[in-house]
C-alpha cells in the first residue's frame, strides 16, 4: 500500500520530493521557489512564494489561494 501511495505521490509532484524547497520556472519563465506539502488529510498542496512576499497554495480540487504579504503580517 505504501509503495502505491509513494508512486502516486511521485506522479502528482512530477517527481519532485515532498517537504523540500525547489526552484522551478513559472509560466512566464521566471524563477519560482516552491515546495510540495502534504496536509493532515494527505491532501497535496503546491506552495509557491512570489518575489513580493506573497504565498500561493495550489490545490488540485480547489481554486488557488493567494495570501499577500500584508495579509500574512
Walkthrough of the structure:
The protein is of the alpha+beta class and 73 residues long. It has one domain. It is 22% helix and 36% strand. It contains two helices and five strands. It has helices at 2-13, 69-72, and strands spanning 22-25, 31-38, 44-49, 55-59, 65-67. A five-stranded antiparallel beta sheet has the order 1-2-3-4-5. A hairpin with a 5-residue loop joins strand 2 (31-38) and strand 3 (44-49). The longest helix is centred in the N-terminal third of the chain and has 12 residues, at 2-13.
Low-confidence spans: pLDDT under 50, at least 5 residues?
none
- The overall pLDDT average reads 79
Using only C-alpha atoms, the radius of gyration works out to 13 Å
Share in helix: 10-25%
Question: Which strand order do you get reading across the main beta sheet?
Answer: 1-2-3-4-5
What spatial form do the alpha-carbon principal axes imply?
Answer: globular
Strand content: 35-45%
Q: How many strand elements?
A: 5
- Our count of helices gives 2
Structural class of the secondary elements?
alpha+beta
Largest sheet: 5 strands, antiparallel
The separation of the N and C termini measures 41 Å
H and E order: HEEEEEH
Number of domains: 1
Features:
73 residues; alpha+beta; 2 helices; globular
How would you summarize what this structure contains?
With 73 residues, this protein is α+β, with helices and mostly antiparallel strands. It has helices spanning 2-13, 69-72, and strands at residues 22-25, 31-38, 44-49, 55-59, 65-67. The protein has a five-stranded antiparallel sheet with strand order 1-2-3-4-5.
